[in-house]
Amino acid sequence: MFDMPSGAEIQSIISILRAGAGYFIPELYLSALFMVLIILDLVLGGRKNRILASATIIGLLGSFFFIFQQHALPDAEIFFGMYSLDRFGIFFKYFFVLTGVLAVVISMEDEHLNAQESGVGEYYALIVGMVIGMIMMASSTDLLMMFLAMELVGLSAYALTGYLKREPRSSEAALKYLVYGAVSSGMLLYGFSLIYGMTAQTNISKISTELTQHGYDPLVMILATLLVMAGLGYKMGAVPFHFWSPDVYEGAPTPITAYLSTGSKAAGFAMLMRFFYVAVPHAVDGVEDMLGVDWLHIMMIIAAASMIYGNVVAIWQKNVKRLLAYSSIAHAGYLLLGIITMDQLGTQSVLVYLLGYLLMNIGAFYVVVMIANKTGSENVDDYKGLGKSMPLAGAALTVFLISLVGLPPTFGFVGKLMIFSALINKGGNAFMWLALIGILTSVISLYYYMFIPLNMFLRESEHNSQKDVSTGMVSKVVTAVLMFLTIYFGIFFQPVVEYAKYSVTMFGALLK
Amino acid sequence: MLSLIVFLPIIAGLIILAVPASQKQIIRIVSLLAAIAQGVIAVLIWRQYDPTMAGIVAAPGGSPAGSFQLIERVPWISLNLGSFGPMTIEYFLGVDGLSITMVILTALISIIGILSSWPIQKQVKGYFILFNLLSTAMMGCFVALDFFLFYVFWELMLLPMYFLIGIWGGPNREYAAIKFFLYTLFGSVFMLLVMIGLYFSVVDPLTGHHTFSLVAMASQENYVKGSILGPDSVMWRYAAFIVLFVGFAIKVPMFPFHTWLPDAHVEAPTPISVILAGVLLKLGTYGMMRINFPLFPEVYQAGLYVIGVFGAINIIYGAFCALAQQDLKKMVAYSSISHMGYVLLGLAAANSEGMLGALYQMFNHGTITAMLFLLVGVIYDRAHSRAIDKFGGLATYMPVYAGMVTVAWFASLGLPGLSGFISEAFVFVGSFTSPTTRPIAMVSVLGIVFGAAYLLWSLQRMFLGKRKPDALYELEKDAHGHEHIHFHDWNGKLDLDARELTMLVPLAIIVIVLGIYPMPIMGMLTASINKLVTVLAPVAMSAVN
Q1: Interface pTM, i.e. ipTM
Q2: What are phi and psi of A78, to 5 degrees?
Q3: How many CB atoms lie within 10 A of CB A67?
Q4: Domain segments of chain B: what residues?
């Protein structure tokens, strides 16, 4: 069927790859780091958790240097249009590396994890693998590449979820995650293949051109869009693709829960934005349903359902990890609000919201780990009286939770402010209703979030069976820094918003 | 100067953070010094305040400088949002007649609050940090002239208040604290949406950009035609007015949103009750006067009758509930609801007399209710109970206390010569003058009668007559045959001690002086109130349209 490529063709392929490699340095660097970590694990004997973790942190931080250098490069599509370098991608590179670093920092703290008999050998390597996958999810411009990137994230995540081998909860979570993941990957792939069938293209901007120029069957298109949305909705943890998340979040090691609920979710959003903004034709100048594909309305329903379901069901949760899992479903809803405005302000606010969510959510999980070390429990009832024995952790957790509610002066408030501004600026009745739902559900969220500080500060502990684990200096500093940043960016958010704006300019005319 | 008065408590809070928790006295003194410094600044502001400058809206030409005083205005956040042009949030403070009274009241009540927090022994450090945070937030609300800044301060109040009730409160404190939090948050989240909507609808005449400035928002000519809350968007303007009104009404609290208040008061420790009744409730009516009414004057005019009716319900219903209470503190809490009804009634009158009465009533209610709650705290400290029926004859044994109670009680029921009388009289003059509220005012007068009833009845049951058989104290005779009383578990001075007198005597003096010569406060208000009435008048609006 295929002719063997001639020598000249091979030459040109090699030169394209070479040219592309210059735009791919952070990813290459991280891949090298991945291998170095595996080798380190093999070479070092005995208890090596700390060394491996420190190496991972230093390695990940090192990648900031290479990412920073990419600011000097022009936007480019590389590797035959499979992959791109642009400001949007760079934003998420920073974002995911930072998430990875914080995940490692939490992991170092987690005694449960470090008490594993088998050690944490490839654990840190897998975290780096996930960082690479998430970065690629945010930068891929080709259906195949998108799928591969998503699988890379998925596979690392399944292994990480089940990392507590002796714990049935963890294994159960991993299996559930795997099964749901496999189904949703299948749906995503099915959607992609339908699109490929319609257009004979895999590059997303070419797909868009093809669709607008030659038209398409609206029914097939809406089916394809739905399937893709199901695949991505699973990554984002939005209703009705959320069923895995409470169990997985509860069973996984806490650092991985934190990592999944911020990193993996953000990667899903990055890919959603790139795919739907670029590939799927949409009504750019206010003409609704221009081409019969009404994915915006579907997404509105998903957003509303996520906000309501996540916030309402969270009320009955007693396990803090599970509570945060439901809250993360709700936050997926808020984030979707920014996307459906389909304008620059909305997109920008999604990025701001994600940054805020990164700080406050990881911060909250960090404190949950510290408390679990002390009490051996993640149950809200065991948080009673902890505000007295761990004042800093208690204060920090309160700040993170207040930020998750979206009260000023915190970063979470800025995210909500931006998103609601985008909705109100947009006008229309549907957007107003969504804003109303968003506002009302955040009042509900106050109730269950405040349940944790309520136990910590308002109630006295009934029994004094707490282990006397004094939290180390490092964790105190990390908590304090995260808390400070959550408040600082809540008051002086100008740089964050401006950087987010700079990062979304590449969508240009695609957004109003 | 305003920045200093706002942020002094937070600075004190940061200092306290560095003080070890065992140094309780240092923590208390640092807080007290900050509050006193606030008081000194408030007095300085009061001294240099020019009562002829009206405020409310910008001076002709659009600049707030000729109208507001002590303005501090720096850009805080300025974002370039592409197609919307720059988004600027300003750090914008200033005072006019509306806010200056509240600034003075807040400074005064903060000092009283700190003094009355002296006996608190549980987690002193945390308590005073939260108290100072609350103090900053309250003061910030009254001087903020940027809606965004106002909103930040407004929300900042909730968390400290939640913990102050929740940790240092009574047996049912968890319920009261979360109820307070949820109610007020429910009221304020809509404010966020309205605030954003207003931002997209209002243009600052000086810069030509959208703005959060409340001064620009108060002039109807600054609204952009065709914007979401612009002059032609009738439906959204009504919706925005109503949700803002509900948000503020929850804070007042106005019937039927009042149910959090008795719970919060009963559970809160004395100083927090003082702050809550003395300052926090005023934020609701202040918000109406500063934001809700001037921004949507045509809706306000259309809703006068409704506001008046709710005011009357508050007055009568609050008084009836107070009449039925066995718990002295609950009675005072309901009397608060009743007295805030006068403020609403005055606002509904929409004329200078009514508005002046309303604002003056806010100040007087702040001082009088602070006294009431302090006095309730005094008896609770001694008897560990507030059941009205469990005393009797106290006047004989605690004469100074009984004297103070009499002053406060009579001020509360509006006895001529005390400050409450003047403000209530103005409210009634105003509401009888306005044809809309005249029938409502006629009904509301009954509130005074019921008010006198529950206050005098409680006075009689507790202080007059003889010791009740099941009273909470024992009678003892000393060697000379004099009768004394003794409370269980109370080893302090039986009658008011020095600290309690320090708090109560100045308040009593203020109540008496302002009842005889109200001009020190009222003189500052008149220009602003007159301006507010013209801004709200239907004539002014038709001129714009």
Answers
A1: 0.89
A2: -125, 170
A3: 21
A4: 310-519
